[in-house]
Amino acid sequence: MSTEIAEMRVALSVKKEKVFRLKKKWESLAEAIRRGINLELSNIVNVQMDELDIVWDQMKNIWAETLALRSDIERLERKLG
């Protein structure tokens, strides 16, 4: 096996692990959003919109990063066959 192929396999593994970690972070942030907007737990006037907006921005960043990683993963998988 050439070192190039080995390096591509390592890169693929690293990217897949990163996607896994991002998914876990996404799930955590989604739970924070659900709790933040649950009117059974809080009155609408007590909703912390500024905090929820920050969480939403973090989710958008994770989404964008995941899309880029998925593209890289697909490219590497095609090259590795």
Structure commentary:
With 81 residues, the protein is mostly helical. It has one domain. The protein is built from 2 helices and no strands. The protein is rod-shaped, with a radius of gyration of 18 Å.
The first-to-last residue Cα distance is 14 Å
What is the overall silhouette?
A: rod-shaped
Strand segment count = 0
Return the structural class: mainly alpha
- β-strand percent reads under 5%
SSE string, helices as H and strands as E? HH
User: Helicity, in percent?
Assistant: over 70%
Quickly count the helices. 2
Average pLDDT, rounded to a whole number, is 94
Rg is 18 Å
Can you summarize the main beta sheet?
Answer: none
Low-confidence stretches: none
Number of domains: 1
Summarize, please.
The protein is mainly α and 81 residues long. It is 83% helix and 0% strand.
Ordered list of secondary-structure elements with their pairings:
Blueprint: H1 3-37, H2 49-80
Helix pairs in contact: 1-2
Keywords:
81 residues; mainly alpha; 2 helices
